[in-house]
Amino acid sequence: MEVYRTLDAVITTLEESEKIGRARLSCGTLAIIDFYKLKYNKRLEGAQVFKMLFNLEDNTSFAKMPMDVDENGYITLLNELSINSREWSLFKTFLHFGDVPGYKQYLKYRDRPNYNLTNSNLEALQIVCDKFGCIPEFDVLYENFHAISNDYGQQARHPDEDNKGHWQWIKVIAGGHVDSRKGWSYVSSRMGENHSLYDYYRRSWDRCNASEFSNNTDESEASVLNDEQTAMMMNITMQ
User: How do residues 156-169 score in pLDDT, each as one tens digit?
Assistant: First the structure.
C-alpha cells in the first residue's frame, strides 16, 4: 500500500505541474496522459486538432480552455470519444515506436498471420486517429503498409487482383466443396459471365505440388470444377 501511496503522490505532484494527467477510458480503466511527451512528440507534427484537444498548442488564435474532468478529477475526453484501453495502447505504441504490433514482423516474413495482426491494429488505430482529427504521420504509415501488402498480393480476393501471381487460385460453383486440408481458403464470390455465382479459393504455392493437384484431386472437389479449371497449377485469371 505504501508503494501505491507514493506513486499517487508522484502523479499528483506531476499533475500540479501540468505535465501529467489522469483520464478515464470508455471501459472505465485509468489512463495516464503525459502532456510533456505529447507536446514534443515529432509524430504529432501537423496534428493541429489533436493539439487543440489536449491543450498542447502555444501559438494559437483560440483561447486555451481547461480540459473537462469528472467529479473525481479524471479527464473525460477519452471516454467521451469512446476510446478503449486497446485503442489507447495502440496509439501510445505508435507514438513511441512509429508503428503497431505485427508491422515489423510482417515486413520481415510477409506472412498472413502478421498481415492480419498488423491490418487489424492499423484499422483500429485509424479510428482513433480520425477521432483525434487526423494524425498525418499515421496516414503515412497506413498508406505505406497497404502499398506494401498490395504489392505482395496479400489482399487479393480475385485472380485479377493478384497481378504478380503470389497465390494459386481455383473457382467452384458457389457452395461447392473444396478440401481445406490442402490449404485452400475461401476469399470471395463473384458472378460469372453465364450468370452463375462462383466461389474463389486461394492457397500458397508451397502447399501444393503438381502430382497432388492433377492426380489426387478429391472426386467431390473435381465435381464442382469445370474442365478448364481441373488441372490448373498456375495463377488463373478467369472472370
Answer: 788 887 766 778 99
